[in-house]
User: Fold Multidrug ABC transporter ATP-binding protein from Streptomyces sulfonofaciens.
Amino acid sequence: MMNYSPGDAPSPGAPSPLPAVRAANLAVVRGTRTVLRGLDFTVPRGRITGLLGPSGCGKSTLMRAVVGTQDRVTGTLDVLGHPAGSAALRPRIGYVTQAPSVYTDLTVRQNLEYFAAVLAPGRANADRRRTDVTRALADVDLTAHTDALAGNLSGGQLSRVSLAVALLGAPELLVLDEPTVGLDPVLRRDLWDLFHSLAAERATTLLVSSHVMDEAERCHRLLLMRDGAILAEGTPDALRSSTGADSVEAAFLHLVDRAAGRTAPAEPVRPGKDLLR
Assistant:
């Protein structure tokens, strides 16, 4: 895996000028509760966009809307040039939920072979499936665990199996809902190295959610959420500069205070601390 400085910008060739995701007046209402409040934002192609905010602010709902599994969505939401949820998008998007989505009574390889067969069925695609499975196992560093039952793996290993499933077929857009939660620092670092490698070397677009603000510094671009709304979007440097803060954590809290009409500076949180849990 590669080492990557968050301030650098990968050069995957000549990315499309059209964004991977474009939302306009995007809203989701559940009963009497408005979960997403008229969001307007874009996600550029071939970059890592971090979706940052406290638990319950609407991150998972927004991600489900992007991949087309959320109901009661209004407004405009285009993904890779199609309306979100279009059948044409299914092989082009990889999605990892917070809970590992694998079969615990199958081995690691059997899980990947099963999902690869769903993506590319038929004998004519057998070689492609083998190649995809081998590459995905190597990407998440699970080659040595291919014959282990998924039910016997650690939590971190299960998370990597779910990520490997999402990488099958080389998706153009990866939507990752808190993929590093509960992982040890070494595995978190390795996964972020993988994310940067995917963006830089394969021009993959990644939308990664987190409530841990030190992960914001690892992203090319940020969407900061609070109470179902986008507080701000931009690069980490731009957000720090626009608020006069020395960290994205402090910038976020400054924006929260500004939205609440408070003028006193917010006390910065410790790096790596869960954001307003």
